[in-house]
Design brief:
alpha+beta, 2 helices, Alpha-Beta Plaits, iron, 64 residues
Length: 64
C-alpha cells in the first residue's frame, strides 16, 4: 500500500500555497478551472501540501 493526496475540488480556491510548499517539482499543478491536481507519479507522499491548505481541500489518502 502507498499513500497519495486527494483533492476536494469544491473546497479548493486555487491559492497555490500547496504548489509553492511542495518540494517535488511539478507534482502539483493548477488546472484550467483553477483547481489543483496531484500528479501521483511525482508525489512522494510527504503531505506538506495537506498541512498548509487553508481550506482543507487536500487530504491524505491511501491506495492499495
Amino acid at each position: 500500500m502507498y499513500f497519495s493526496v486527494k483533492v476536494d475540488e469544491e473546497k479548493c480556491i486555487g491559492c497555490k500555497i500547496c504548489i509553492f510548499t511542495c518540494p517535488e517539482p511539478n507534482a502539483i499543478m493548477l488546472t484550467e478551472n483553477k483547481k489543483v491536481c496531484i500528479d501521483t507519479n511525482r508525489c512522494k507522499g510527504c503531505f506538506l501540501c495537506v498541512s498548509v491548505c487553508p481550506k482543507k481541500a487536500l487530504e491524505r489518502g491511501s491506495v492499495e
